[in-house]
Amino acid sequence: MADNKLKVMTYNIHHANPPSNAAEGIINVDTIAGVINKQAPDLVGIQEVDNGTARSGNINEAAILAQKTGMHYRFFKAINYDGGEYGLTILSRYPIRSEKQIALPRVMDGEARILCYVTLNIPGKGNLIFANTHLDAQHADGNRIVQVGRIMREFNKTHTPVIITGDFNSAPSQQTIQILDQYFRRSCVSGCPYTIPQINPDKTIDYIALKNEQWPVTDHRVIPETYASDHRPVIAVYQIK
To answer: pLDDT tens for residues 109-128?
Structure first.
C-alpha cells in the first residue's frame, strides 16, 4: 500500500485457459500472473481457479499465482472437478490472519457456490475483512438472490471494514446487485466500464464493494486485457483514511 492507498483487483481467470485456446485446453498461468503483476494490487479476489484437475495438468494454480506474484494466498474449493478441485482464490500482500468459507444456498438446481473471506491486518490501519465470491451463472436471479442474501447476513453484524470482490453474474439493474447496494458501496455505480466479454465487452457483472467505511475511491478501472480470460480484470483504489 503506497500513500495510504489500497489497490484491489477482482478477476475471473477462466481456469487460466485463454478463450481463444479453449478448444485446445491450453493453460497459461504465466499470463494471468503477468496481468496481476502489471497492476501490482494489494488484494486480489480470483474466480474459476483449478487445483489438481486433469484439464489443467494437475497443477495448483493458486499456489503458482502466489509464487509468481509474491503474495500470500488461500484457495477455497467450491466443487470437486475432473480429479481435482475448482473454486476461488484470495491473494494478499498482507499476512492472512484467519479464513472462512461459507456454502451458499440454492433454491433450484445449479453448481455449488461459496463465499470465502480472510481477515488481514493493515499496518497502522487495523483489521480488514477481504471477501470473494462467484454467484450462480445458470438461473436468472433465482439462486443469486438467495446467495447474495446469505452473504449480506454473514457480514451484517460485523463492524470491521469489509471489501468484497467477485463475479456476481448480474448486471447493476438486476435484483442481486440491488440487494448488494443496500449494504455495500460499489467502487463504481454509474457509467462504469463493462467487464465481459473480453473483446468488445457489453455487460458489467464483476464488482468490488466496500462496507463499514467511507474510504474514497480514487480510481476504478477495467483493464483492457483480451487474451488471458473471458472476463476483464477490475481495479479499484481506495484512499485509506
So the answer is: 889 999 999 999 999 889 99
Total-model pTM? 0.97
Q: Which three cell numbers stand for residue 141?
A: 436471479
Number of folded domains that form the chain = 1
Read off the CATH number of the domain in which 29 is found.
3.60.10.10
Task: Give the pLDDT mean for 105-111.
Answer: 92
In terms of Cα–Cα distance, which of 51, 11, 55 is closest to 222?
A: 11
Taking Cα atoms as reference points, which of 59, 65, 72 lies closest to residue 37? 65
Q: Other C-beta atoms within 10 Å of 105: how many? A: 12
Q: Give the span between the Cα atoms of 90 and 74, in whole angstroms.
A: 5
Distances (CA, A) of 35 to 47, 134, 225: 15, 20, 8
CB under 8 Å to 49, separation ≥6 — which residues?
Answer: 13, 15, 61, 62, 75, 86, 87, 88, 89
Question: Is 102 strand, coil or helix?
Answer: strand
Q: Which three-class secondary structure state does DSSP give residue 144? A: helix
Question: Residue holding cell 461459496?
Answer: 114
Q: Where are the alpha helices (DSSP H) in 4-131?
A: 29-39, 61-69
User: What domain range includes position 176?
Assistant: 5-239
